[in-house]
Design brief:
Mean pLDDT of chain A: 85
Strand content of chain A: over 45%
Distance between the termini of chain B: 43 Å
Structural class of chain A: mainly beta
Oligomer: heterodimer
Shape of chain A: globular
Number of helices of chain A: 3
Mean pLDDT of chain B: 68
Helix content of chain B: 25-40%
Chain lengths: ~450, ~210
Amino acid sequence: MSSAILTALLMSGAFAQDGTTEPPPPGGAHAVEMRDAAQADRLQVFAWAESGVDAAPSVEGTTELRAIELVGVNVPINNTWDVEAHGAVRMTGAGNGPDKLDVYRLSAAYKGADWTVSFGRLIRYDSRGIQRIDGAIFDLDRGGSVSTVGWIGRVWHVETWDVGNTWVGGFQVALRPGNAGRYGSRTRGTLGWEGRAGEAFTHRFIASLASYGLDGRFGTTHFEIEPLVGEPVKWRAGVKGTLPVSRHTDAGVDVRWEGLPPLAVQNAVRSPMDWLAPQGYGVASAFTRFHHGDLSFGAEAGPTWYPHREGLAQAGGLGRAHVGLELHRDLGVSLYATAGAIGGSWLGGGGVALEGKVRESELSLNSGLYRFQGLDGMSAPVWESRAAYESPLWEARSRHDHLDLSVDAAMGTTRMLIPWVRGGLTVRGVVDRRRRGGQ
Amino acid sequence: MAPLSKKLSGGALLLALAFAAATAGAGSRSEPEGKPELREPLPFDHEAHGEVFAKVRLGCVDCHPIGLSVKVDGVAQPQVEELPKPLSVCHGCHRGMVKGAPRKAPGTCMLCHAVREELIPPSHAVDWLTEHDDEARAGIANCRDCHEPSSCVSCHERRGPGARTPHPPAWLNFHGIEARLDPFRCSTCHAGESCAECHASGEGPW
């Protein structure tokens, strides 16, 4: 707690220079932005820091004190170089020193006329999902209808960090028919290949297609196949579409077959997919969203199917729905319901959620009551509530630099009717001196 | 192997058909009503743009289509119409949309736009937190045009106090069922160690 307060005071002191010692330029915030934009050659920087502490239930059933000190910086240099570093130290237990050092990014990118090369600790994403690598990404985009990206590196993971050596390398060619250019085309297709070397070498072929309309319709499909000599072919594929069926209503479907190990974890690491669905599974859902005036409604439901499973549950399903009402411009309330079942385990119930805003401060609450039956066939009522509050402590007139406080708490009971409580406080400061950005 | 190949090609065909049905006519509907409101007066400095306009071959009529069709008191008047293509003319340099755009062009949206909320894409609805991955993975969106670099890290990498959770209510009790219903999604952020930490320790009531 004291570290959070200390950080707040230090940051307040650092920021005070921006707001108090500099004479206000004529014309208010807009004039500040114009002045900033005109100073094109000055150093640009985005920096953020957080200090947080919370008390959370541990596996042993006791309450554990945890703290985090996080810093990040992004420096674009002359729109050519982009240097980025984000990391944190975490502490568990009162009075203990740091027990975890997390490095989320440590990278530099160089932007040429038609290409960009990034290297270091990176994150990349494509039609298949997120991939975190220590390596390099080369992006060639000449602004036309064809662009190419290639990557090579060692896989890292945000929970396992460095376990074993899993190397990946691949490329993807993207086609944007119709109006050329990143922003001009509403359709994008990709074809690619990736090799993966760890305990064994595997490779995959990748294809995807996505298209959207300005009215909200969106469709995406992906296909990924891993041919292995002497073994059954593994693959994953999916299609998802959203269609505005009326002025106030959207509806859609999401159908997937998941038959490949996830690309985010190292080969030596067992993922939830390896534990629960090594031979693959199919999952589908249909969803709809309605919004008219102060009233909103949303629902989704669909099945899961494990065709190759023996001894364990082969089918299950999930459904969620909510009805929301905006009581006031800054206050909304909604009722929600959740149900899901697989094998002999199921959960059903619902609750109420509240979201409010007072000036720049935001508050959200939700609380629900459910009935939960575990794999052992025993069922019990369970309860869970969450609350979060965010408020600015200080904000520069330009709105680029700010210091915020957030407080959150959660509590409830487990199926064994054991109560639990979690709560924390975080102070976050941001200094944003970039030319680009939506601010 | 042959039957499997047939199954795969059949599946791919079905997927393609479903995709075509879902997106048929994408973009053919009318665009959203109204255009984002710009600041009045627009903070445009003609003198500062002279040199670069000459370089990228932009002339007066690219922003001011001048006609002589309007007469006031019998005298033809220049008619200055609405900016015809601000997206391509202004954004070409200021959002880096054209090849060879000057690198010093400031890209701050609120320099010209008056209402920040009008710039929020229609896709960013209430469920955007759980839905944004589709658009991001499709490569159509450019998240960093608007979002600060810490946005991804805050949710996707950060752990511990203050971490934002994308999980819906009742997660502590519900996560086991949802994990068995869709384990691939868990694997985006979690390794198997997350499960083992509680379920294999033998110390908790699970």
